[in-house]
Amino acid sequence: MNNTTEKHRKKVKRIFCYLWGTVNMGLCYTKDYGFELTGFLDADYAGCKDTFKSTSGGAQFLGEKLVS
Length: 68
Description:
Elements: H1 6-21, E1 37-44, E2 55-62, E3 65-66
Antiparallel strand pairs: 1-2, 2-3
């Protein structure tokens, strides 16, 4: 963040151009669609015995389909 280069700025500009081009894209669900969003998360604080780093992971389901 303190030492950005022209390469970084070009990448950020490319990301913003992509987002601008997809601003009208999305998913549309009607009120009677009846989907269920379920999320699972697991975290382990300082679980690594060597580095004492924390680990975490998660999964999100839309109905029976894994989305993230």
